[in-house]
Amino acid sequence: MRILGIETSCDETAVAIVEDGIRVHANTIATSKNAFGDTGGVIPELAARRQVECMIPVLMEALHSAKTSPQAIDAIAVTRGPGLLGSLLVGTVTARTLASVWQKPLVGVHHTLGHLSSTWLQNEELQSPQFPMLSLSVSGGHTELWYRTGHTKGVLLGSTRDDAAGEAFDKGASLLGLGYPGGPAIAKAARGSDPDACKFPLPLHNEDSLDFSFSGLKTALKYLLRDMNSPLTTDHLPLISASYQHAICLHLLDRLKKAVERYPDIHEVHLVGGVSANEHLRSLVQQSFPDLLIRFPSSLTYCTDNAAMIAAAGYFMIQEMGQGAYRPFETEASLPLTRELSIAKSLQ
């Protein structure tokens, strides 16, 4: 089954064609990230305007790359939320138009469910997934830990109480005078430096909750820089960057360790989202769980926002929900995945 996916929740304009949730025939992305390097974040109006300009060229490039005609597409999947409303509307209006003109069924996909589906892309081993599993989805917009019994079945174990992990990297990079996005900038500055050079707190370590909190780490970094006896130098920057990155990763690992202890029936741990591309985080997780199967997206392209993951999620929704996957939907800037999974459960 070939699904055409569309993703425009933030600053990317992405179209992909994916077969059976695994085989990627095309994955085309245009981003305006470089335009926001000096602003420290995305400007919603500019992002949406750029997406309007890019949508048709990106769509045509995806069809050409996949050597696919509209007749060969079985369904269309589009991100319906959460995200920047103007950006989301560019995608959903395009998807509704294509579905009408091409006479194809349309699936509205939750952005996080897309990330949770990204480990299946180009991974034939996962045709028979080992549920139950833990999935840690970590990006600039969300940080969530899920216990999953199916593609559209699961329980939210913990989420961030304030900033997402990606936000913590972005804000930290801003304090350190580094670029945007913050995660890659801090990772580059930290490379080869001692992660224990500076001490940061381990948030929520003594709580039973599996929630996350990153605002304290950002504040600790702010005070560390304020209390330095000298200006930030090229000698200090790598050490502070490495320590701050390590603190964020340790907090994520701490929550994951508690979840693994609490749910001994799991077979696999999946890390997804933009922050899952972080090499230091990957190394810590792999070292900490030698007896579990640890999976990441097969390519760094599938860690960040892309349309292939939306197409994959759309396919899995159809497989598990049947006709319920095609239910009418609204475009929503704020959209809890817990609500979506509750609806999915009622339709299965």
Please, could you describe this protein's structure?
The protein has 348 residues and is of the alpha/beta class. It folds into 2 domains: 2-121 and 301-347, ATPase, nucleotide binding domain (Nucleotidyltransferase, domain 5, 2-Layer Sandwich), CATH 3.30.420.40; 131-297, Nucleotidyltransferase, domain 5 (2-Layer Sandwich), CATH 3.30.420. It has helices spanning 44-65, 85-102, 111-117, 165-175, 182-190, 215-226, 236-262, 279-288, 307-321, 337-347, and strands spanning 2-7, 12-19, 23-31, 75-81, 106-110, 133-138, 143-150, 153-159, 268-272, 293-295. The strands form 2 sheets. It has a 5-stranded mixed beta sheet, with helices on both faces. A hairpin with a 4-residue loop joins β6 (133-138) and β7 (143-150). The chain is globular. The mean pLDDT is 93.
Keywords:
348 residues, alpha/beta, Nucleotidyltransferase, domain 5, 2 domains, five-stranded mixed sheet, 10 helices, 18% strand
Condensed summary:
With 348 residues, the protein is an alpha/beta fold. The protein folds into 2 domains: 2-121 and 301-347, Nucleotidyltransferase, domain 5; 131-297, Nucleotidyltransferase, domain 5 (2-Layer Sandwich), CATH 3.30.420. Helices cover 41% and strands 18% of the residues.
